[in-house]
Amino acid sequence: MADATQPGDGDEPKTERRDFLNYLAVATGAVGAGAFLWPVIHSMNPSRDVLALASTEVDLTPIEVGQAVTITWRGKPVFIRHRTEAEIADAQSVDVADLPDPQTDDERVQQAPWLVMVGICTHLGCVPLGQKPNDPKGEYGGWFCPCHGSHYDTSGRIRKGPAPLNLPVPGYEFTSDTSILIG
Fold first, then answer.
1. Structural domain span for residue 29
2. Which residues participate in catalysis according to the annotation?
């Protein structure tokens, strides 16, 4: 008479089959969870139009000495001014200790004639005047925010008025002598 629990009588195949079914169920659940989560996670990535706005290349060739242009980057106005020798000299001669937000002109520009900054007043988010030739430029020859009377100099530094900070300088780099990449 043979014992009913001897190896090879059928207990092993049932255990192996049960393990296989458990592995199959877990693998199917993991693939299903991944298939569900992938679109959800992918929807959190920025869209193509947002990525396109992340950086902007600007050709500086058409900007004459003394001229200022405004471009849009990430929905914000960016002021680019090709400063004259007199504007550069004025900006560099300022005693930084007298400024509300002390920064030297060299800290704000990469190449002396080119000033690049976000054109939004740091007081309440207005756009200062001073880009057009007939705009009021304030007491310091730079920009003037008529909403509350903030005056900026030829380096975009706050000199007078309620604005607490200088006009911000965005991250940018010169890709050539006549071209910059903002962002």
1. 10-45
2. 148
Please check whether residues 83 and 110 belong to one and the same domain. Answer: yes
Which helix (H) or strand (E) segment holds residue 17: the answer is helix 11-42
Tens-place pLDDT, residues 89-124: 999 999 999 899 999 999 999 998 999 999 999 988
CA–CA gap between residue 122 and residue 138 (Å, rounded): 16
What is the 3-state composition of the chain as percent helix, strand, coil, each rounded to the nearest 5? 30, 25, 45
Q: What is the pTM of this model?
A: 0.71
Task: Compute the residue count for the chain.
Answer: 183
**pLDDT single digits (tens) 30-66:** 999 889 888 888 888 877 776 666 788 999 999 999 9
Q: Within a 13 Å sphere around the CA of 52, how many CA atoms are in the beta-carbon half?
A: 3
- How far is 176 from 166, CA to CA, in rounded Å? 27
Question: Same structural domain for residues 67 and 84?
Answer: yes
Output the CA torsion 151→76→174→168 (10° steps).
40
